[in-house]
Design brief:
The chain has 442 residues and is mainly β. Among the domains are: 30 residues; 76 residues, Sandwich (Immunoglobulin-like), CATH 2.60.40.1120. Helices cover 7% and strands 50% of the residues. It is built from two helices and 43 strands. A four-stranded antiparallel beta sheet has the order 5-4-7-8, with no helix packed on it. It has a four-stranded antiparallel beta sheet with strand order 10-43-42-41, with no helix packed on it. A hairpin with a 4-residue loop joins β28 and β29. The chain is globular. About 2% of the residues have low confidence.
């Protein structure tokens, strides 16, 4: 090779070294060259964490290995780095599972996350668990109590007293039943036996609650009194007098009774104290919930407006973020959100505290969960904060709760009249038969 050629390759290698070095320096700073603006722009990234972990990831329709050195250092998930700012259509799929899709926006210097993606089965294996024609059912620690289409109650193959269950819990083996003649305490260790509850003749209990510390007692809120009831012998006693009673709610040791005046009577059964909360809400109350500590009350008035009452300073405010008239409140297990169903069946998620999952959510933020038809019930999934179950026009919908579109939704069953979640199993009535299905993930 002559001298001229050697000089050419020498300067060429220097130029390549300079260009590659400059590119690596620019890339390390998260910059890419935009050929439209002929300028450098800062890049961003997308972090995805999903189940099953072997799923295929597509970005804008392109399938390839999106892993990176950073991504390989993570315990799970995929990190997509050096992405130019803009919108990216992400699709995650796995054989036998419904795919997940989302439009994610990348901004300069920021990693956009979708860290709670779950792919759910395309088909669900339902198991029929009763031969009775089922009109209703209730969960207990010992199994299910079933109400037949003949208004009879059965626990297993044994008939129990009453035509309906008014109190049950999946962690208790005591149920309170009733019929036109009164109320009964039934211990499912001996379901054929019962104690008639000794209430004044004609007394109607608006709602029953398990006593917070007495395992042998329940509490009932009547029109004029809160009653203590022994489940051992059915004897009763009056705990508190009430001016009137519209509906009641329990949070831990406290029972809250909404009065027709708009005030709320609070009884702490452990401290044996009671207070009258003057909410300042006129026109009557329709529903009530609290935060985990019972310091904040969330109240629906009869016009469907949502109020927040702060017990620490005695002030009541109206959430003005949504004009929908609500009819039902469902507090989330994490205490950060409320699910609300409007009178028309629309589902809204409202943040009641600042929190961060994949993005920052501020108290008062709200967004709608899109459903094809009116919803009648909502179920939070404990331990799975980004999904919920919605009963909509008889369809059981497993819905993503992320406000970013599209919201991924999956129909599990149709023609459902009731659904209850317990220990990752869903129990539901379909066409008069009782079924169980596991809310399984791969």
């Amino acid at each position: 090779m002559n001298l001229k050629a050697r000089k050419f390759f020498f300067y060429l290698f220097i130029a390549i070294f300079v260009l590659v070095g400059a590119y690596l320096i620019v890339s390390a700073q998260g910059l890419v060259f935009d050929y439209q603006t002929l300028d450098f722009m800062r890049t961003g990234g997308i972090f995805l964490n999903y189940t099953p972990s072997e799923s295929q990831v597509e970005i804008n329709g392109s399938v390839r290995d999106y892993g990176s050195t950073i991504g390989n250092l993570l315990s799970s998930g995929t990190f997509l780095n050096n992405l130019a700012p803009g919108n990216y259509n992400v699709k995650i799929s796995y054989p036998g599972y419904s795919s997940w899709q989302k439009s994610l926006t990348v901004t300069p210097g920021v990693v956009t996350s979708a860290s709670q993606v779950i792919l759910w089965p395309e088909t669900w294996s339902n198991k029929k668990i009763s031969d009775y024609k089922t009109a209703d059912f209730w969960l207990t620690s010992d199994g299910l109590v079933i109400k037949t289409d003949q208004n009879l109650l059965y626990f297993g193959n044994e008939k129990i007293k009453g035509t309906s269950v008014y109190l049950s819990d999946e962690n208790r083996n005591i149920v309170i039943t009733g019929d036109q003649n009164g109320y009964y305490a039934v211990n499912l260790d001996n379901p054929g036996a019962y104690f008639a509850i000794d209430l004044p003749k004609g007394t109607k209990i608006e709602k029953w609650f398990f006593h917070p510390f007495d395992q042998n007692a329940v509490v009932g809120t009547g029109e004029k009194y809160i009653y203590y009831v022994s489940t051992v012998n059915g004897s009763t006693g009056k705990l508190y007098s009430l001016p009137d009673n519209q509906f009641s709610y329990q949070n831990g040791n406290e029972i809250f009774v909404a009065e027709k005046s708009g005030n709320i009577f609070s009884a702490n059964l452990v401290l044996r104290t009671n207070t009258n909360i003057e909410t300042g809400i006129t026109g009557g109350l329709n529903d009530l919930s609290t935060d985990a500590g019972g310091d904040e009350l969330y109240i629906l008035d009869n016009s469907g407006k949502l109020h927040e009452y702060d017990r620490s300073n005695g002030t009541s405010t109206v959430f003005s973020s949504s004009s929908l008239p609500f009819s039902k409140i469902y507090p989330s297990p994490d205490g950060n959100r409320l699910a609300l169903i409007s009178g028309t069946g629309a589902v809204t998620i409202l943040a009641i505290k600042d929190y961060k999952m994949d993005y920052q959510v501020m108290s008062g933020d709200f967004w709608n969960v899109k459903t094809p038809g009116p919803a009648s019930d909502f179920i939070w999934l404990p331990g799975i904060p980004n999904y919920g179950l919605i009963l909509e026009n008889g369809n059981l919908i497993l819905s993503e709760l992320d406000e970013r579109s599209p919201q991924n939704q999956y129909e599990m069953e149709s023609n459902i009249s009731k659904a209850v979640l317990s220990n990752n199993n869903i129990y539901f009535i379909k066409d008069g038969s009782l079924f169980e299905v596991a809310l399984k993930q791969k």
